[in-house]
Records
---
Amino acid sequence: MRAPTSFCLLAQRLWRHHPALLVGLWVLVQLLYLRKFHGPYFANDSARYLAYAANIAERGYFEPGHNLRYVLYPLFQSLWLRLGLGWWGIVAGQMAISALATRAVYQGTRRLSHGQRGAAALATLLFIAWPDIQPFNVFLLTESLFISLVALSFGAFTQLQSGRRKDWLRLIAVLILTALARPNGFLVALAAALAGLDALRRRPDRRPWRAALLALVLLSPLLWVALNHQLATYYLMDTYQRGELIFRYQLWAVHQAAPLNMPPPGTGPVARVVYFGAHNPLYLGRLMLGKLFVFVSYLKPHYSLAHRIIGVVVLWPAYWLAARGAGRTEVWRPARVFLAAIFLLQTAIIMLTVDDWDVRFLAPVLTVIFVLASLEITGWWADPKPATV
């Protein structure tokens, strides 16, 4: 009986120091990826971000067009270029923000679990150890900043339970930054809005709910213009015609059985998608289902067998656990709606656009899955407590 007893004692001692162990693991992971990629990693899209950043740093020039949809990241890079710290400064900045994001995952999950540290530790461990999140900290791409901002948005959202004005201001600031980081960054603010609408709908006084709906109706023309603006530089009809599930990858593609009915020239970006769907519903449905599988399955054609096995063994059960976690009534409902909406909105965007060869579109929303799955797992042995609605 000594061996099991000794093991339990060791586990208890380690658990008492789990925050320090998580910090140490985070530092070790950063060093490992710096060594693996030999310092800051220049990827395919790095050139355009760095060129944009150099224009901002040297001339204060903000390039219009497609790159403006990623404006926060070149602006972030330009700060380090202006300080003369170059690529290493950019990566150091990304790691610093990632450290804050990791802390936000821990603290936010702990708030939702009523102070229990098990869910917080598990969600944070997955956030640190998952092979497709932390590596982006050494990439000269937008993904590191976007992943961190999604996590920081989650942390800021959970603080709203206190009802303090400064917490609302912090959340609004982080949501604005997230929206400026990538073209789809607005989805996090939209998820927060949906959580707010759900909270208003559940109030005994229905007047705020009706006022919110009226505001949405009045603002719908502006929302239509904004969505058209976001889609203006994307050539979705080209990817639809090629049947692409993964951008520029034809081995996994959907082939049409009959000629497609394409939108007439001059149709707006959003109207083109609506027209295409209305006139080619079966074909678009096949495309969307294929993109859904590619997005969530983790079975990308370029991945190694080991990488795919990790996804199937860990991520597939995590989806199921997260779905159950989203229904846990003892967890603060607005946060559950917020987290679920982030993942579902990102999935819908990918189904209507196109996925990439790696998981750069999935990685930013894996935090949502890990948090909800951790809440579900630890909820099995925790005493349920009523959540604040």
Note: The beta strands are 244-246, 249-253.
---
Amino acid sequence: MTRTATPPATGPDDLDRLAARLDAADPLAGFRDRFVGSETSLVYFDGNSLGRPPRATLERWERFGLEEWGGRLIRGWDESWMELPFTIGDEIGRTAIGAASGQTVIGDSTTVLLYKLIRAAFDHQHGLDPRRVEIVVDRDNFPTDRYLVEGIAAERGGRIRWIDVDTAAGVEADQLRAAVGPETAVVVLSHVAYRSGHLADVETLTRISHDAGALVLWDLCHSAGSVPVECDAWRVDIAVGCTYKYLNGGPGSPAFAYVAHRHQAALAQPIQGWMGAADVFAMGPRYRPADGMRRFLSGTPPIVGMLAMQDTLAMIAEAGIDEIRAKSIALTEFAVEATEELLAPLGVGIASPRSPAHRGGHVTLSHPRMREVTRRLWERDVIPDYRDPGGLRIGLSPLSTSFAETLDGMREIARAVAEVG
């Protein structure tokens, strides 16, 4: 369904009418009731950090406890659990990241999967050409990504090539082109910048990396389930994404890894656990990696942690990622408009790209007192999050957020900013 542009509001009453009109016309409005807590007055602006739980998941957890874990016990491994990382991985590939089957798997935490794949890519590239010792990463990438790159470079005798970026934006083509070269082994980039919401041009930046002979790892944590991703079409090499944000997998739910078919046999992941072996139950004297995506597993799959995301994946498939993206744009555009009407007079700025074509699913608002504002908002059941320097992030999850909820929250932000001065 194509959304039409809505005339800008010119006052508080117009914002109310605009929110009501947008909610009435929203083809995804019915999904909101499928989430726990949607019936309350709490305003949730942190779906880009931890998504609301789907109601269907509560039933799924109960069935699993009674019927699968409680009823089948260890037989569950043979009956379905051993294949669940691949089954759900393929569903993520199909619905959320544009990947054909056999390239996506549910594994460990985001940090562990990032370590495995950055290290595997570095070792592979350095083995092919000993000159390739550099890992390229921007200084405003998510802390885990940067910390891991520092550790891997130190561990493997590599170097880091840092890209300095505007914290209200992200990595652009000219910046990456200037950073890569014959010594580049791996480039580590985020599709959506965690701080600003900047939406990177994956296809162009991947091509620049490849032209320099490098592999590129994409962090999809802030895009999977909210922004269309086309890993296969964009020739992505490897990618990692978390599942507790827009995929609503629950606190600490396991991450997913994507490795393109063309790289799977060549990459040797460094944490050699029994679940990644060619014959898991042979318990042989030496490790021999499995073919395909199983080789990127290490320990026993976290089955309970995989349950919740299945319900959101089903909703994404039902709604369609393009329609989800259309609503995401509409929500963030509405938040920007409300900011200009309610918050700009109070000295609040926007520390995110203004064009929706260059912005993911969240908007960051800037003010020197935003840390105190965030504290006050949490006490009032308005839940954004805070990011230095002076940034309040509004994460608008398209399936569970309404325009009326967004307006309620923006008014509470204005109230809190006025209070702190």
Note: The chain has a mean pLDDT of 96.
